[in-house]
Design a protein that fits this description.
By secondary structure, the protein is an alpha/beta fold. It folds into two domains: 2-124 and 188-257, Rossmann fold, CATH 3.40.50; 127-179, no CATH class. Helices cover 38% and strands 18% of the residues. It has ten helices and eight strands. The chain is globular, with a radius of gyration of 18 Å.
């Protein structure tokens, strides 16, 4: 168990046990309402090849502080985190909302990222935008019978949103609402094409939170990116199909590590 102190607050992170190699560190960012446990199979298995570092974001898991209100705030915090750990060059993996943070971070600090892996994420978050709209309409999204509340609000809400919200609520924490509201404001579509570093985009073929058409659109917008659609996997593809996911990530990083 490891902690780092930033502005008098302790933040928790998991780190693989191999000797540290700061030039080939791989940092994984979790999604909305989650914590670093979603990367357990990467910490345990990819650590044979790379140094894996997995922070709990502020107000998530074992980390102190409170959830932040925007992707830019999380990106700024992540820069403090990497600086505290002495990481000047790294591979960055972001899942779902963590993928939004990863996009914003590479936009702000392109020189620090050797390669980017975006997992179950996109330039916009349809579910989060609908969630934010319902929140602004005054629907009680914290209620136990939230689906009934949504159904009776008079708005045209897709069934896919309801299924996705049920799934997120089953795995999410108290930070989920803050993250969904922050994700609802995120939109990288105007600048995503400015990312020049190598990017691997991974999504599960059966993802209902980030349907595959969104990663496919992102792939079209990113020059030189690779798209990997993993069959029989949902939103949490790094758990659903851990071996296929780990193999795709390892191949991507190995290829970049051999470049001058």
């Amino acid at each position: 168990m490891a902690h780092v102190t930033i502005d008098n607050t302790e933040y928790y992170y998991r780190i693989s046990k191999r000797g540290i190699d700061k030039e080939h560190a791989v940092v994984c960012l979790h999604g909305a309402g989650a914590d670093g446990l979603v990367w357990s199979y990467q910490v345990s298995r990819l650590s044979k090849y790379f140094k894996i570092i997995v922070p709990d974001l502020p107000g998530h898991g074992r980390s102190g502080g409170t959830p932040l209100t925007s992707v830019k705030e999380y990106s700024a915090w992540f820069d403090q985190f990497t600086t505290a750990l002495g990481l000047s060059s790294l591979f960055l993996i972001g899942h779902s909302f963590g993928g939004a943070i990863a996009q914003e971070y590479i936009r702000a600090h392109p020189d620090k990222i050797k390669g980017l892996v975006l997992v179950g994420t996109s330039t916009v978050f349809r579910l989060s935008r609908m969630y934010r709209k319902l929140y602004e309409e005054g629907v009680d999204l914290s209620a136990e019978d939230v689906i009934d509340s949504i159904s009776s609000c008079g708005m045209d809400v897709p069934d896919s949103f309801k299924r996705g919200l049920v799934m997120l609520r089953e795995v999410g924490s108290n930070a989920l609402q803050a993250d969904l509201l922050a994700a609802g404001l995120f939109d990288s579509s105007d600048w995503i094409s400015s990312i020049k570093q190598p990017v691997l985009i991974i999504c599960g073929a059966d993802d209902i939170i980030t349907p595959r058409d969104l990663p496919e659109e992102m792939n079209q917008s990113l020059p030189g990116s690779e798209l990997c659609i993993i069959p029989d996997a949902g939103h949490v593809v790094m758990i659903d199909r851990r071996n296929a996911f780990n193999e795709a990530v390892k191949d991507f990083i190995d290829k970049l590590s051999t470049l001058p």
